[in-house]
Amino acid sequence: MSLPVRIAVDALGGDYAPQAAIGGVLQALKADTALSVQFVATPDVLRRAEQQLREVSGQVTFVTSGAAVPDGDHPAVYLRRHPDASIAVAVGQVKEGAADAALGVGHTGSVMIAARWILGTLPGIERPAAAGALPIGAEPVLVDLGTSAEADARELLTFAALGSAYARALKGVEQPRVALLSNGRERGKGTRVVQAAYDLFRERVPNFIGYREANDMVEGDADVVVADGYIGNLVLKWMEGIARRLIEIGGATGELAAQIERMRDMTLSRLPIALLGVPGVVMPGHGRSQPADVARLLMRASDAVRGRLPELVRQEVAHFLGEVLPSRAGEEGEDA
Fold first, then answer.
1. pLDDT at 156
2. Closest C-alpha among 309, 9, 1 to residue 133
3. Do residues 28 and 119 both lie within one domain?
4. 0.85 exceeded by the pTM?
5. CATH classification of the domain holding 234
C-alpha cells in the first residue's frame, strides 16, 4: 500500500485557474487513493470546487485564503502586504505540519519567495535552488534552473548536494555522478567562480566527474549537472526552443520521433521542478499548466515525499559541506 501523502495546492495561480487545479486534483486523487489535498482558494472558488470535487470529497480539505499574487505585482511586495495570499497559505500548511508538500502554478517567483520566507532554509543553505530532470538522454538533473542569477563556489557546492538528493529521491540513483557545467572539459576552463568550484567539488563531492559542456548532457554520463541559475535557465530555455521548433517541423520517425516526443514535456510546461533547500517539498508549476499538468505535478510531489526528498537533502548537504565550509549565515550570527 502506498504511503499516505498530503499536498497543499494553491488553486488560484496560473492562466487557467481555478479549473486547472480542480481538474488536476480530481485526476490525481482518482489515480492515487493514498493521496489527499488541501485545496487552497477564496471562498467563492471553494464553493465551486466542493461541487466539482464531490467524487473525491473524502480526500480533500478545503482551506480558505485570499487572492493569488496578481500578474505584474512584485511578489515580495505583495506577499508582505497580503500574508493570506493563496500561495502563502498553501506553503503555510507545510509549515504547520498539515501538509507534506505544497505546489502552485503561475508566478514561479511567488512560490519561491513564499517558500523561503515561510519555511526558511536548511542549515548550510544560503539560497534554495530549482532542479528538474531534463527529458533528454539519460534525463540528467540540472540545478539551478533559475532561482539565483549568480552563485559563488560554495553555493554551487550546495547546488551539487541538492541535485544529488533529487537524483536519489526521484530517480533512484544511489550514487549520482555529478558534473560542473562549463565551456570545455579541460582543467582551467570556466569563470573564476567555476574554477574555484571545481576545486571544492574535487574535495567534497562524491562521484565528481569533472567539467561537462552543454552538449554533453545528451550523452548520459552525468546524473547531475550543476550551474548557476542564469546559465541553467538559459540552457533550459534554449532546449525548449529547439524542441518546439522540431515539433513544428514534424515529419520525424523512429528514434528521432520518440526523442522529440520526450522533449515535448519541456515545450508544454510539463517539466516537474522542485525547489530544494527548504525544509519540505515545494514544487512550482508553469502558468500555462492545464489539468493534466497539475495532476502530473501532484504525482511528482507525492513521489518526492515518498522518496524522502527532504531527508536526503539534509543528508547530502551535511555530507558535501561537512565541517569544512560552515554556513556563512552562521558565521555572521557569531560575529554579531
1. 96
2. 309
3. yes
4. yes
5. 3.40.718.10
Q: Is residue 28 part of a domain?
A: yes
pLDDT of residue 288: 84
Closest by Cα among 28, 36, 95 to 285: 28
Residues 289 and 265 in one domain: no
> Rounded to whole angstroms, how far apart are CA atoms 251 and 241?
18
Whether residue 82 lies inside any domain: the answer is: yes
Distance CA 323, CA 332 (A): 16
Instruction: Look up cell 561537512; give the residue.
Output: 322
pLDDT digits (tens, 9 = 90+) for 40-89: 999 999 999 999 999 999 999 999 999 999 988 899 999 999 999 999 99
User: Among residues 31, 47, 110, which one has the least CA distance to residue 77?
Assistant: 110
Dihedral Cα 63, 69, 75, 78, nearest 10 deg: -90
My answer on whether 137 and 259 are in the same domain is yes
Structural domain that includes position 107: 1-125+278-306+327-336
Provide the percentage of residues in the chain whose pLDDT is more than 90: 69
| Count of the separate structural domains present in the chain | 2
Which distant-in-sequence residues (6+ apart) come within 8 Å of 27 by Cβ? 291, 292, 294, 295
